[in-house]
Specification:
about 450 residues; mainly alpha
Length: about 450
């Protein structure tokens, strides 16, 4: 068999193994190892490739940014800043139609700017927002759907871990990716808010909580003084200033900003008296688990991308695209559809690490902007977080709630309008690249 055939078979085999339930890094590493072994006829080549991926792939200084931002996000979750932001958002938006839903989106947008991990947002607001919305008469599907939809904002709004991973894969500036994610993230949040208000006006039965009694109850409940609003927002504003202000102000690199942010989160936790030995151990061990899985995935994906280069698949794929004379629009449509389909079975990190090495060489002759391409990739993959059979945000919410009255189908059904909204925003981002690039 030729290198091209081996490359094609390896891609299909990886998907089959993942569908069968094999851990994604194991599937990537195993298929890459066997493919290189077959292509080179010796075990020395794949062993060398594996050691190269594990050593040179992770020895770069900027890899330190991943555990630092993950640590910061987990400490922030322990500080209950998500609850504080939600209470303030509810207070400010209590007179808006679908106010608690809008408050959830606003709070998740703010929370995403200090965590960068969508799973953290999903777990926090599943505990905070869903019980409150249910208490004020909102339907269970809307309550879980708005949490699922807005939780994915953590993938796009800096300091997103996905933006960091994409920057590492394509060897681009992390700070530039952060800048590119700001307006798309805010656009998606605004689109969610518009959809919620429209549903409250035209489909009140779907969201509930719109009768006079429920709205009056919500308004009377959301009562905060100016001092309370400031005290709840102050930690959030301090962290934003430390992390994003430090990066964009040129005071420190993203890696250093992660360290400063993690330290700031610990100081806030101490001030709020949310820190003890048990919490510190829990946060550190959970950070270790998340980072270990991410780095193992990066090592396996690095080996996979180098195996593809050896097989010649990206080069042959690019030549075929050129010979077929497909337009950039056609290729992007195929790419987005592929992202959404893969998003139904894979997490965003896996999609980035598998799809980018395959498609980026094909896109380069069209003189695309790599940073814009990264935003398209992340948003397209995010849609899969809300779609069955493996919408990770939906599974996290269901597992966090542990409410027998709310089924997994309810979560997916509630998230459906927000998945459609994401697709419409993605189309806007493709048609108007300036939305992503205006700050660069």
């Amino acid at each position: 068999m030729t290198g091209l055939e081996i490359g094609l078979i390896s891609v299909v085999l990886i998907l089959i193994l993942i569908y069968s339930g094999m851990y994604v890094p194991v599937a990537l590493g195993l298929v890459s190892f066997l493919s290189v072994w077959y292509l080179r006829g010796t075990t020395e080549a794949p062993i060398y490739l594996l050691t190269l991926a594990a050593s040179s792939g992770l020895e770069q200084y900027y890899f330190g940014v991943i555990p630092l931002f993950v640590l910061m996000g987990l400490v922030v979750s322990q500080c209950e800043l998500g609850r504080d932001i939600y209470e303030v958002s509810n207070f400010l938006l209590r007179k808006v139609r679908g106010g608690l839903g809008v408050a959830t989106v606003a709070a998740n947008t703010a929370f995403a700017a200090i965590t960068g991990v969508s799973i953290a947002s999903a777990s926090v607001f599943a505990r905070v927002s869903v019980p409150e919305m249910r208490r004020f008469g909102y339907t269970k599907r809307f309550a879980v759907g708005v949490v699922a939809g807005s939780s994915v904002l953590g993938m796009l709004i800096p300091p997103s871990v996905m933006l960091i991973i994409y920057a590492i894969v394509v060897e681009e500036s992390v700070a530039a990716m952060f800048k590119a994610g700001i307006f798309p993230g805010l656009l998606l949040a605004c689109a969610y808010i518009a959809v919620i208000v429209c549903m409250a006006i035209f489909f009140p039965k779907f969201i509930g909580g719109q009768d006079k009694e429920s709205r009056a109850y919500a308004e009377s409940y959301a009562d905060l003084s100016f001092k309370e609003v400031i005290s709840k927002l102050a930690p959030f504003l301090v962290l934003i200033l430390l992390v994003l202000g430090g990066i964009y102000g040129g005071l420190f690199t993203p890696t250093e900003a992660g360290a400063v942010g993690a330290l700031g989160a610990f100081v806030i936790a101490i001030i709020k008296k949310k820190l003890n030995k048990k919490v510190v151990w829990k946060v550190l061990s959970e950070t270790g688990h998340i980072v270990a899985s991410l780095l193992l995935l990066i090592v396996a994906a690095t080996m996979y991308s180098r195996m593809l280069a050896i097989s010649g698949l990206p080069t042959e794929f690019g030549a075929w695209i050129a010979a077929a004379e497909l337009s950039l629009t056609t290729i992007l449509v195929v790419y987005v559809i592929t992202l959404i389909i893969m998003g139904t079975i894979l997490d965003t990190t896996s999609i980035i690490l598998i799809m980018v090495p395959l498609f980026l060489p094909v896109m380069m002759p069209y003189d695309i902007n790599i940073i814009w391409f990264g935003i398209i990739t992340i948003v397209g993959a995010e849609i899969g977080l809300l779609t069955p059979p493996l919408g990770i945000s939906c599974y996290v919410i269901k597992a966090t709630l542990r409410d027998k009255d709310i089924s997994l189908f309810d979560v997916f059904a509630g998230a459906f309008p927000f998945a459609v909204t994401m697709l419409l925003v993605l189309i806007l981002l493709i048609v108007f690249p300036q939305i992503s690039l205006v700050l660069l």
